[in-house]
Amino acid sequence: MEIVAGLLLALALGGMAFFSFVFSPLVFVKLPMETAGPFIRQVFPWYFLTIAAVFALAALALVPDYPGLAALAAGMAVLGGINRQVLMPRINRLRDRMLAGDEAAGPAFDKAHRASVGINLVQLSAAAVALAVVLSS
Question: Most buried of 33, 90, 136, 137, CB within 10 angstroms?
Fold first, then answer.
């Protein structure tokens, strides 16, 4: 199970790094804004779901040998669900209000977006730390 856990953590780390630092920025560089925004809205639910699922599977694989890391991975899966089910819909609603001219929505959008990015960075860091622990033993 240790090998499976390591592979799942590497998948989470690599997938998140690629999506965050390559894919998402390229969408906004290569596509017109009127296409990029709706496209990324369609991709993010799948991204958050995939990350939550990979962390959940990693948690299960970590239980026998690394119960503390299993709890960490389970927490990261929950954060992925929060990002998908709570923050992302709020971010989308606030962005729509901003585009409709509601200036008051801007600060709330910025706050919700920063929270989502923060969760993503915490998950990315947790995957790196957990992977390092698994690889070092």
Answer: 90
Cα→Cα distances 117→32, 42, 69, 90, 123, Å:
23, 17, 22, 14, 10
In the chain, the amino acid numbered 96 is D
Distance of alpha carbon 126 from alpha carbon 65, whole angstroms: 17
> pTM higher than 0.90 for the full model?
yes
Residue 41: the pLDDT is 94
pLDDT beneath 50: ranges in the chain: none
Q: For position 58, what pLDDT does the model report?
A: 98
47 CB contacts (<8 Å, ≥6 apart)? 19
Distance of CA 123 to the CA centre of its chain: 7
Give the start-to-end residue ranges of the domains of the chain. 2-136
